[in-house]
Amino acid sequence: MATKLIIDTDPGVDDAFAIALAALSDDVELLGVTTVYGNVPLAATTRNARRVLALCKRADVPVAAGAERPLVYPHPHRARYAHGADGLSGRSSALPEPGRELERADAVTLLTRLLEAADEPVTIAPIGPLTNIAALLAAHPGLRERIARIVVMGGAMDHGNTTAAAEFNIWSDPEAARRVLAGGEVPCVLVPMDLTYRCAVDTEWLATLAASGPVGAALDALTPDYLDHYRKALGWNGVVLHDAVAVAEAVRPGILRTKRFPVDVECSLGPARGTTVVDRRRPELRADTEGEHAPGTVDVAVDTDLDGLRAFLLDRLTGRTRAS
């Protein structure tokens, strides 16, 4: 049975890979894509998402633009240092023009419409700031039962990438992240940076993708700025496909190994803002110290078969085994 999926995204190079992963998987019913500010401003993320879908020949998938800023405070800065000025290493215009008009409805309206129309619960994969998803849960509490789970790429248990403590997606809108992750309203899987870094792929992997055909070549062509950034971050020639790792879990539940922990998000304005607080104490100890307002529990992805995950991504993106 195909997984019914909606992706909420801020493309971004790794977002482009994640969208393509879902769009090219024939065991996924990609109901829609919604966009949010993040790596670059909303107009650019929306354009990029539509062009990636055009690359994958998925004009059937509706796209709606969402939030252009966080819920409370302005967005401090974008991630051009990793993704380039247009979000795709300056190569967005090399992708095909969109084959479908942008939805007139905003992201939350499209999410609502798709959830109401679905004949079974839908998985939502937010792989950017969580502003749209927090707004959906706040405005439409009756739709919670129509959401199978929310698979979030974000957070870090060890150290951040945008600040010493915070990962970019959570840091971009901590208040929204806290509503989604700590609210306990919908089952959540959190795919943190700690694991996605371990799933990094090397240039040989990228070369195999590039040689696979037009789609693989186009995706590889989006990576030069991204590769420059991750060469510094990793210390070797490779890239971290954060969002594709999360969408892999949405596409194939269980490909990542998870453990259940209480999760909270630091929303102060100090240096810890945006920190994902994963309580890894033994449950017996937590029971002695938690108050009545303890945060919700989340399935946190902690491990995977690294080579198997890389092979799964490559097989799907090259079309070798679309639904194996």
Side by side, the strands of the main sheet go 3-2-1-4-5-6-11-9-10
In the predicted model, the low-confidence regions spanning at least 5 consecutive residues are none
How much helix, percentage-wise, in residues? 25-40%
Number of strands: 11
The CATH superfamily name is Ribonucleoside hydrolase-like
**CA gyration radius, whole angstroms:** 18 Å
Percent of residues in beta strands: 15-25%
- Straight-line distance between termini: 13 Å
What is the second-level CATH architecture? Alpha-Beta Complex
**Which CATH C-level class is it?**
Alpha Beta
Report mean pLDDT, rounded to a whole number. 93
Keywords: Glycosidase, Hydrolase
Pfam family, one: IU_nuc_hydro
Protein name: Pyrimidine-specific ribonucleoside hydrolase
Organism: Prauserella shujinwangii
Structure characterization notes:
The chain has helices spanning 13-23, 42-55, 80-83, 107-117, 131-139, 168-172, 174-182, 193-198, 203-210, 214-220, 224-234, 242-251, 283-289, 306-318, and strands spanning 3-9, 28-35, 63-65, 122-126, 147-153, 188-191, 201-202, 238-239, 256-265, 276-278, 297-304. The radius of gyration is 18 Å and the shape is globular. The model has no long low-confidence stretch (mean pLDDT 93). With 324 residues, it is of the alpha/beta class. 51% of the residues are buried. It has one domain (3-318): Alpha-Beta Complex (Inosine-uridine Nucleoside N-ribohydrolase, Chain A), CATH 3.90.245. Helix 4 (107-117) crosses helix 5. The strands form 2 sheets. The chain has a 9-stranded mixed sheet with strand order 3-2-1-4-5-6-11-9-10, sandwiched between helices. Strand 1, helix 1 (13-23) and strand 2 (28-35) form a beta-alpha-beta unit.
